[in-house]
Each structure stands twice: as structure tokens, then as C-alpha cells.
Design goal:
- The protein has 798 residues and is mostly beta strands.
- It folds into 7 domains: 124 residues, no CATH class; 93 residues, Immunoglobulin-like (Sandwich); 109 residues, Sandwich (Immunoglobulin-like); 94 residues; 131 residues, Immunoglobulin-like (Sandwich), CATH 2.60.40; 134 residues, Immunoglobulin-like (Sandwich); 72 residues, Immunoglobulin-like.
- It contains 2 helices and 63 strands.
- The strands form 15 sheets. It has a 9-stranded antiparallel sheet with strand order 35-33-30-31-51-52-49-55-56, with no helix packed on it. Strands 58, 59, 60, 61, 62 and 63 form a 6-stranded antiparallel sheet that branches. Strands 10, 14, 17, 18 and 19 form a 5-stranded mixed sheet that branches.
């Protein structure tokens, strides 16, 4: 009997071991969180819920039930149960509550292997407040209802929203926004434009407080601007996109409010704006009243596009100011041509490396098609452009140093038979300038930027100081004037010391460190005395000088003293001429004391006295035949420029200057160019150098300036030397030249007509002698130094 029982147990164990023990466990699903559909119902995600997740095909061996090994029997035909065990529904498919859904699973390979259970769904009550966005004008008002897009128990709310017992702010501290009991928001007038975001919720007795939602209110700017048109104009009609062409803009202004906006204007950093709008009604747009003109620069052409940024400003009905900004990009056609580039080549490698600056030490020269006509061109920044549309044209390119620099610097680059291929863009040709020695060369120029002095008016002069050397210098500037003629009013740099001596008032300015090839300015405002302290046609003088604070050290001695002093003689006038020409000497120049390497310094002033901006300004100047055109050098200009010279013909071009109408007692709408030049060595006593300029504003007829005459008169013998008398005799001299003076003479230099110093000598006395017997026969200049004063006298060696 025991044996039979054991056999039965063993057989039962074997049979059950061969059959999988399928098992389905009860599921409980709570639908509370998840994505919302367009009806604000929670989506029951199939990826999240599956009734097979806790079921087993073989519980003993831990084999999970999957759609591939079991079959689901939906015993109650629950419509949202899928054959793979997932459930597809939203909370809006079923009313809130608990749902018990029976189901069976059986082994697909053995249908008799079956298990039964249920899954439970809990559908909660749903209430949801949705985010809102409203726009309202500066005049304020009432927004639409925040409840209009909200839900309760998966159903939209409808007016009059009787299901809602309360709607309230969750957080707001702005008294200009009131959430009303009916769900609208009252906005106070004059609320500043901008975006305001607050949180709110609603409350029902049945469901409690809803979700928290955001409401964003955009208080719209009453004024908005856009650029309605931006068109390129070939201003000079040459068919090339170049400096001085323009972009024309048409601005569109819209009033986004219901009340008028007044006093509307548009500004732009670099565009000349014309027109305003006195008043613009609510909801209206104006596209014609305000226009702009922008003059192209070389930087724009290099970039091949222009970005315009414009700001509109206006007053709302409460007199509050509002602004709006817009931006537009205009693409430009690529110009093809040549860039001429002069720079100081610090390391002598022929390439412009980082930190190597452009310099204006002379003129670029180019010859077109080997015609023999040499065109000279220079600019304020050491570069120049030649645009070309004909690929058959050839250019020979070079650079010539000004006489002020040729003794210390050199340039060797030349290019021949250069052509420009259409569509090739800009090709750069470098002209590296080098120096073999340490050069210290401070220079100063006195510029009459306000014209001639007038009794009782202020008079402004500009001192331009430069470091033309390749070493750091430390500038000290002296300025002197006659206090009977002027009173110092102000200066852009305060003076550190002043004193009066010999009826002259001296001011001293510490400039500090001046880096190589850099410059700076001091504008000095003087009050001109009234009549009879000064009278019309009086000649008044100003003096400026520059030196290195540490010149006592041998390593800091100036290489070139010729540009360390600047005199300005002017005639007192009774009326103001906005477009004129000046020269720094007196009308009569002492021929005997005029050193051949001295310069005549001209300033041409121009002023836009019209009512609209001048896009381009051109100044033409024909040099007198008694001037050495090859020594022409620009010293300064009020605006970026390019000057072209063919022989004695000068043409200063201020392309794209966009000069506005002038404003009295300011430099707005005004400009100038200052240059110096040597006379020809063949100049004789009695010669008169005349000069006149023609000024062109856009396409208007030229304005002809006054004529400047400088007559060279001879008066060999006794000379004024810093308010003392001196004598130079015999003149002509054969062996010994005698010098006598009422005041001490420190030293002398003798210079030949080529500008070379051939003799130096200490005197340290009121008289002295110089042995000139070894000198070749000819004309020489003797430069006498006394304290900080210098004068130059011509003498002849027989």
C-alpha cells in the first residue's frame, strides 16, 4: 500500500512539473497624472498601464506573461482594453468612480491552461484652469474672461460660470490689475507697456480649488515702427557701389491704441531722418511722412550689407513717452577693385601683422594703362580704394613718402600691370613702411576751426599734436597769446601751469605718454577783446609748441625740430564767413628769414548752411605754380576724407559725410581740411602766392572761398628776434658771418637749400661769429635759438 501511494505522488509531481502554472493577478490603476488632450482630459497612456505587467505564464519558474505567449479574454467586452493588455482611454471616456473589469488569460499554446482575475480603474473628478494670454492698450480696460478656456470634470465651463464659487489671484502685488469675481481682469489706464504674468485658480464647493494657472497680459506699446522700404541708390551714377552712395528708407508708424499718439519722431544712429508726425489716430498707420537717407561707408561695402536700426518716439494721450525699435538689413552688390594699404612694418616682414598700424606718411600713386598721367591719392587712415569695372584696364601702383618722412623712413613696394577681374571683390596691395633707426618726432599744428577772430566773440583754435616717430614720447605743450587781444575761457585739457612774460600769456599742458603714430587734440576757447582793444584788420598772433618732457636725456632728443612749433597769424574781421580759407602766416612774409623747408599752412573751412544734410562734400583746390606740389601733406581734417592729386590739382572728397545743417556756436554741420606745403626753391623776393578753393555740397554749384595772398618781401639787415634786435652781417658773406643781438643767443644751425643741417655751433652770448669760408657759394639759412624761441634768417655765401 505504501508503494502505491508513493507512486501516485510521484506521478502527480511529474505531471504538474510538465504543465505551466499560469497566474493572473488583480490590477489597480489610478488615473491622476499625465498628459492632457484638447478637452483637458487626462490621457490613459498605453505605455504606462498594461494588465499583463504583474501576470505570469509560469509562476513557479518566474516566466512572465506577454502578448506573445498568452491570450487575453475580455469577458465583459470592456471597449478600451486592447488585445496586448494596454488600455486606451481618457478620463473623459468614463464618469468619475471605480470600475472593476474582469478578464481571463490562457496559455496560447495550451488554451486549457487559464487564469481569471479583475483590474480596477479609478477615475477621479477633474477640474483644470488653463493658461490665458490677453493684449490690451495703454488706455486700459477689461480683459476677456479667464474662465472661458477652463474645464471642470472634463467639461468646458460656459457662461455665466455658475458652477464656480470663487476665482482669485494666487500671487500678484500689482494694484493696476484687478481680478473680478466674474473672471474678467480690469487694467488701470497708463499701465506701462510690457508683459505681466500672474497666477490664479478657481474654487468649487464640490471639488475644491482647481489647478493653478497663469494669465499673461501684454500691455501693448501704443506706437510701433517698421521699415516699409529700404532701397539702394547709386548716388553719383557711376554704376559702382562705393562710398557716398545711399540707402533710402521709408518708415511705417502704427498707433496700436484707441487714443491718438502725438509728437512722433524717428531717430537712427547714422541715418539722416526727415519728417515727423504731429498726431496719429488710434489704429491708424502712416507710411509716408518720415523718411531717412543713409550714406554708405567703406566698412559697409566691405561687409556687403547695411543694418539699419531706427527708434520711433511718441506721446500717448496721457503725455507719457513711448518708444519702439526696428531693424532692417539691406544687401549690397559686391564692388570689385583695389585696396591700397600703407602701414608701419615693425618687424620688416612685409606683412601687416596684428598691432601694426596704418600710417599716412605720403601718397599712393597709380598710373592707368601706362598713360603717363600719375594720379596721387591719400586718405586719413592710410588706405585708398580704386573701383574698376573693366577687366582690360591695367594699373601701375606705388607709394611716395612725404618729404617730412623720407629722411627717416623707406618704402620699396611697387606693382605693375595690375588688373581687376569682374566679381573678384577687393584685392589688397600692401605698402610696408620701415625705419632702421629709433625716431623721435613730435609735431604740432594750430588750426583756426572757427575762422577769423571777431571783436567781442569767442574764438576757438585747435591744437593737433602728433607722435610721428616710432618711439614713445611724453608730450609737453606750450600755448601763448597776447592778453590784450584775448582772454582764455576754456580748453578741453586743463593747463597745469601759466605765467605772463613780455606781454604774452603762456599756458602749459601735460599730454603724458603719446604712443607712436598717434595724435590728439586740445581745443582752446578764447574771448576776443572788444573794440578799441582790438580793431578791424588788426593782425593777432597765437603760438604753440611741443617738446618731450624728458628731452634732457640723450636718448629722447628729437630727430626733427622743424615741426615742433606752430604760429597762427589772423586778421580781425567784423563778419562771419562760413566757407573760407586761411593761411597761418601774415600777408607779408619776410623772404630773407623764410627757410626753404618751412611750410605754408592752409585751412579750408566749410559749413552746411542749407536745410538738409549734404551726403557728399568736395573741395577743389588749384595749387599756385610757386608751390611745390610734391611736398603737399594733409595735417588734419574734421571728417574722414580722400584726397586725389593730379599735378597741381587737389580734390578733397568727403564722400558719405552726411553733413547735417549747421547749428550756431557748435561744430555741428561744419568741417575743415588743413594741409601744408613748401614753396618752390625758385621763389624770389616779391613773389606772391595766391590760393582759392571751390566747395561743392552734393550737386550744388560751387561756393568760391576768399583768395589768400602771401607776398614774400625782402628786408635784409636788422631783424626782430623775440622782441629784441639782432644784426647779421656782412650779407652776402665770404669768410666770416657776424651775429649781434640784444639778448643772449644759445646756439645756431646752418641749413642748405636741401634742408640738411651742415653746421651747428654754441654761442652762449649776445654776439658771435661763424666761419663760412669752406661753404660752397649759394643760399643758406641760419637758425638762431634763444630759450624756447627760434628764428631763421637767409644769408648768401659768395
Amino acid at each position: 500500500m505504501k508503494k502505491i501511494t508513493l507512486l501516485i505522488v510521484l506521478l502527480f509531481g511529474l505531471s504538474t512539473g510538465l504543465k505551466a502554472q499560469i497566474r493572473a493577478f488583480q490590477d489597480f490603476f489610478f488615473v491622476a497624472n499625465g498628459a492632457h488632450d484638447y478637452n483637458d482630459c487626462l490621457i490613459f497612456s498605453p505605455e504606462t498601464f498594461n494588465i499583463l505587467d504583474n501576470d505570469y505564464l509560469d509562476l513557479t519558474n518566474n516566466i512572465r506573461a506577454t502578448p506573445s505567449n498568452v491570450t487575453i479574454v475580455n469577458t465583459n467586452n470592456f471597449p478600451y482594453l486592447n488585445s496586448n493588455g494596454t488600455i486606451n482611454l481618457t478620463t473623459c471616456n468614463l464618469a468619475p468612480g471605480n470600475y472593476y473589469i474582469p478578464y481571463d488569460i490562457y496559455e496560447t499554446a495550451n488554451p486549457s491552461n487559464i487564469s481569471q482575475t479583475t483590474f480596477v480603474l479609478y477615475i477621479p473628478f477633474q477640474d483644470s484652469a488653463k493658461d490665458d494670454y490677453f493684449e490690451i492698450g495703454i488706455s486700459g480696460g477689461v480683459t476677456p474672461n479667464v474662465l472661458a478656456n477652463d474645464f471642470i470634470d472634463c467639461h468646458p465651463l460656459f457662461p455665466p460660470y455658475s458652477e464656480i464659487d470663487n476665482v482669485h489671484w494666487i500671487s500678484t502685488s500689482n494694484a493696476q490689475f484687478t481680478l473680478n469675481v466674474n473672471g474678467t481682469i480690469t487694467v488701470t489706464p497708463e499701465t506701462p507697456p510690457g508683459f505681466y504674468t500672474f497666477q490664479y485658480a478657481y474654487y468649487t464647493f464640490n471639488l475644491g480649488t482647481s489647478d493653478i494657472s497663469n494669465v499673461t497680459i501684454n500691455i501693448t506699446n501704443p506706437i510701433s515702427i517698421s521699415i516699409n522700404g529700404n532701397s539702394y541708390q547709386d548716388y553719383n551714377g557711376d554704376g559702382i557701389t562705393n562710398v557716398g552712395d545711399v540707402i533710402n528708407y521709408q518708415y511705417s508708424i502704427t498707433n496700436n491704441d484707441t487714443s491718438p499718439v502725438t509728437n512722433i519722431s524717428v531717430t537712427s544712429p547714422n541715418t539722416s531722418i526727415t519728417g515727423t508726425i504731429a498726431s496719429l489716430n488710434g489704429g491708424a498707420t502712416n507710411t509716408t511722412s518720415i523718411t531717412g537717407v543713409y550714406a554708405l561707408t567703406q566698412q559697409d561695402i566691405n561687409a556687403s550689407f547695411v543694418t539699419e536700426t531706427a527708434t520711433a518716439t511718441g506721446l500717448d494721450s496721457y503725455s507719457n513717452t513711448h518708444t519702439d525699435i526696428t531693424e532692417a538689413i539691406t544687401n549690397l552688390n559686391i564692388s570689385s577693385g583695389i585696396k591700397l594699404n600703407a602701414f608701419y612694418d615693425t618687424n620688416n616682414n612685409g606683412t601687416q601683422d596684428s598691432g601694426e598700424v596704418n600710417v599716412n606718411f605720403g601718397e599712393f600713386r597709380y598710373e592707368l594703362n601706362s598713360s603717363g598721367q600719375i594720379n596721387n591719392v591719400s586718405s586719413n587712415n592710410g588706405t585708398a580704394y580704386i573701383f574698376e569695372t573693366n577687366p582690360a584696364n591695367t594699373y601701375n601702383l606705388g607709394y611716395i613718402l612725404n618729404s617730412d618722412f623720407s629722411a627717416n623712413y623707406s618704402v620699396s613696394s611697387n606693382y605693375t600691370n595690375v588688373t581687376v577681374t569682374n566679381g573678384s571683390g577687393i584685392t589688397t596691395y600692401n605698402f610696408p613702411i620701415t625705419a632702421t633707426n629709433a625716431i623721435r618726432d613730435l609735431a604740432i599744428t594750430t588750426i583756426p576751426i572757427s575762422g577769423n577772430p571777431r571783436p567781442g566773440f569767442t574764438h576757438t583754435v585747435r591744437l593737433k599734436y602728433e607722435n610721428l616717430g616710432n618711439q614713445i614720447s611724453y608730450g609737453d605743450i606750450g600755448f601763448a597769446y597776447n592778453p590784450s587781444n584775448y582772454t582764455h575761457t576754456s580748453s578741453t585739457i586743463p593747463h597745469y601751469y601759466s605765467f605772463n612774460s613780455n606781454n604774452l600769456e603762456y599756458l602749459y599742458f601735460d599730454i603724458g605718454e603719446i604712443q607712436p603714430f598717434t595724435s590728439g587734440y586740445i581745443d582752446i576757447v578764447l574771448q576776443v577783446a572788444t573794440i578799441p582793444s582790438v580793431n578791424l584788420n588788426d593782425i593777432v598772433e597765437l603760438y604753440s609748441g611741443i617738446g618731450d618732457l624728458y628731452e634732457d636725456y640723450p636718448s629722447n632728443v628729437e630727430t626733427n625740430y622743424n615741426n615742433n612749433q606752430s604760429y597762427l597769424y589772423q586778421t580781425v574781421v567784423g563778419s562771419y564767413d562760413p566757407n573760407d580759407k586761411n593761411e597761418n602766416h601774415q600777408a607779408e612774409i619776410d623772404y630773407d628769414s623764410y627757410y626753404i623747408k618751412d611750410k605754408l599752412t592752409y585751412t579750408i573751412r566749410f559749413e552746411n548752411t542749407g536745410t538738409a544734410s549734404a551726403i557728399n562734400v568736395k573741395v577743389n583746390d588749384m595749387l599756385d605754380t610757386k608751390l611745390n606740389a610734391n611736398t603737399f601733406k594733409v595735417l588734419d581734417a574734421s571728417h574722414p576724407y580722400k584726397v586725389e592729386r593730379v599735378g597741381r590739382n587737389l580734390s578733397f572728397k568727403f564722400d558719405g559725410i552726411d553733413l547735417p545743417p549747421s547749428v550756431a556756436n557748435t561744430q555741428i554741420g561744419k568741417g575743415f581740411i588743413t594741409y601744408n606745403i613748401e614753396v618752390n626753391p625758385t621763389l624770389e623776393a616779391g613773389d606772391i602766392v595766391s590760393n582759392t578753393a571751390n566747395i561743392f555740397f552734393d550737386f550744388n554749384p560751387p561756393i568760391v572761398t576768399n583768395t589768400i595772398d602771401r607776398e614774400f618781401v625782402s628786408a635784409l639787415g636788422t631783424k626782430e628776434f623775440n622782441h629784441s634786435k639782432f644784426s647779421l652781417y656782412p650779407n652776402p658773406a665770404k669768410t666770416i658771418l657776424n651775429i649781434q643781438s640784444e639778448k643772449n643767443i644759445d646756439s645756431i644751425e646752418i641749413i642748405d637749400t636741401n634742408g640738411r643741417v651742415i653746421h651747428k655751433q654754441r654761442i652762449d652770448n649776445t654776439n658771435g661769429t661763424v666761419n663760412v669760408e669752406s661753404f660752397s657759394n649759394g643760399i643758406y639759412f641760419i637758425k638762431l635759438h634763444n630759450d624756447q624761441n627760434t628764428t631763421t634768417i637767409k644769408f648768401i655765401k659768395n
